[in-house]
Amino acid sequence: MDAIVIAGGIPGPDEPLYPFTQGAPKALLDVAGKPMVQWVLDALDGAETIDQFLVVGLDENSGLHSQKVVAFIEGEGSILLNIRCGVKKVLEINPSAGHVAVVSADIPGIRSEHVDWVVRTAMQTDEDVYYNVITRQVMEARYPGSKRSFTRLKDVEVCGGDLNVVRTMTVTGNDELWERIIASRKNVFKQAALLGYDTLLLLLLRQITMESAIKRVTRRVNLTGRALLCPYAEIGMDVDKPHQLELMRADLSRSAAQPVP
């Protein structure tokens, strides 16, 4: 499978990580001796299920290295637009690509075996979208004090992961749906209309299970999808705030100091 690394975010002066980035891309923040995104590239390099990948939002002069990277392309602003331009570039390079893995540059804890688990688990079925979720128990056992935000459903409390799988034609072949998703990203009323007010109400009242929520939302947007209950907290441990940056610096420094068995 091909993959896309989304690495275009540059924190503004009013964002928590600005004192650390000072106008530079967040993906290039130093984490335990190398750029945060380099940890992600290393995981993809070692993954048996990833053939090649491209990086959206950085250029070839960023000082990164990888055996499998085939292109660095300029970002288009928002995450959703970057995903779409990344998928289009994947199809230019590999027209036969059916699904792609979409990976955020700010999850430096991931390892190759985590990537392989996601791809292999997803490809057990043939859906349009696969979305990783991590339970509170798994996240807080691995990263106590991470202060992640969780959604409480009827049967489980979860946060979202930042390594997911999508069918290429879902992104490139449905302009109307994609435009609605982009238009709704900062408007709660448009989001509610996209999901369906009945589903939103059940979510707010915590009266819907995860499986039911996925079925309702995908039916609403005329897609198929599956939530992957991921056992790896690293896939959901993104770096958005200073305490999360320090947490990952300490965690990965400890890992790097451990002798190789």
What does this protein look like?
The two termini are 30 Å apart. Strands 1, 4, 5, 6, 7, 8, 9, 10 and 11 form a nine-stranded mixed β-sheet that branches. The chain has a single domain (2-254), classed as Spore Coat Polysaccharide Biosynthesis Protein SpsA, Chain A (Alpha-Beta Complex). Strand 2 and strand 3 form a beta hairpin. The model is unreliable at 184-192 (pLDDT under 50). With 261 residues, the chain is of the alpha/beta class. It contains eleven helices and eleven strands.
For the largest beta-sheet, the strand count, sense and barrel status come to: 9 strands, mixed
The helix fraction, in percent, is: 40-55%
Main CATH class: Alpha Beta
| Average pLDDT figure | 86
N-C termini distance: 30 Å
- Taking all Cα atoms into account, the compactness measure Rg is 18 Å
Please tell me the total number of domains: 1
Number of strands: 11
Order of helices and strands: EHEEHEEHEHEHEEEHHHHHEH
> What's the tally of helices?
11
Amount of beta strand: 15-25%
CATH names the topology as: Spore Coat Polysaccharide Biosynthesis Protein SpsA, Chain A
CATH architecture: Alpha-Beta Complex
Shape: globular
- Poorly predicted regions are 184-192
Features:
about 260 residues; alpha/beta; Spore Coat Polysaccharide Biosynthesis Protein SpsA, Chain A; nine-stranded mixed sheet; two-stranded antiparallel ribbon; 11 strands; about 40% helix
